[in-house]
Amino acid sequence: MEKKAPDKFMRKTRLPHWKVISFLLLIFDAAAVNVSFLAALWLRFDCQFSLIPQVYLGAWMHFTLFYTAFCLLVFWLGKLYQSIWRFASFHELERSLVVNAITGAAHILGISLIFQRMPISYYAVGIVLQTVLVTAIRFAYRFVLLLRSSRGKQGSALHRVMLIGAGSAGQLILRDLMKSNESRDKVCCIIDDNPNKWNRYVEGVPVVGGREDILLACEKYKIERIYFAIPSASAVDKRDILDVCKETGCELKTLPGIFQLVEGSVTVGAMKDVAIEDLLGREPIQADMTDVFNFLAGKTILVTGGGGSIGSELCRQIASHNPRQLIIFDIYENNAYEIQLELRDKYPELNLVTLIGSVRDSRRLEQVFSQYHPDVVYHAAAHKHVPLMEDSPCEAIKNNVIGTYKTAYAAMVHGCRRFVLISTDKAVNPTNIMGASKRLCEMVIQTLDRKVQEGRPYDVPVLFTHGGKETDTEGRRHLPAEDIHTEFVAVRFGNVLGSNGSVVPVFKRQIAKGGPVTVTHPDIIRYFMTVREAVSLVLLAGTYAKGGEIFVLDMGSPVKIDTLARNLIRLSGFVPDQDIKIEYTGLRPGEKLYEEKLMAEEGLRKTPNDLIHIGSPIPFDADTFLQQMDPLMEAAYANREDIRALVADMVSTYHPAGEQHPVEPAPVRADRAREPVPAR
Question: pTM for the complete prediction?
Answer without folding.
Answer: 0.62
